[in-house]
Sequence to fold (91 residues):
Amino acid sequence: MIDRLEDIKSRTEQFTGELERERYHVHAGRSGQLKMAGVYDRFEDLASPSLIEFLRGEIDRRRDDAGDSEPVRKLRSMLSVVVRAVHGSPW
Fold:
């Protein structure tokens, strides 16, 4: 499991970037079909129920300390990406 928040942030940004590129290539006519399976395979480390629990715990802990702050919103965004990775659902 990825255990540092900076590593999780980096991996989720890379993951969403690759998904966006795949969609762009299809819509721009550069590719005939979406090749999402390869993206999900390269980022299988994000598809971890324990990572979801880790992020939920961080959100709860930080929300208790600082309310609904910008760091909490960023954590929620990362959590959303990880949940999508687990379920294999592109946005």
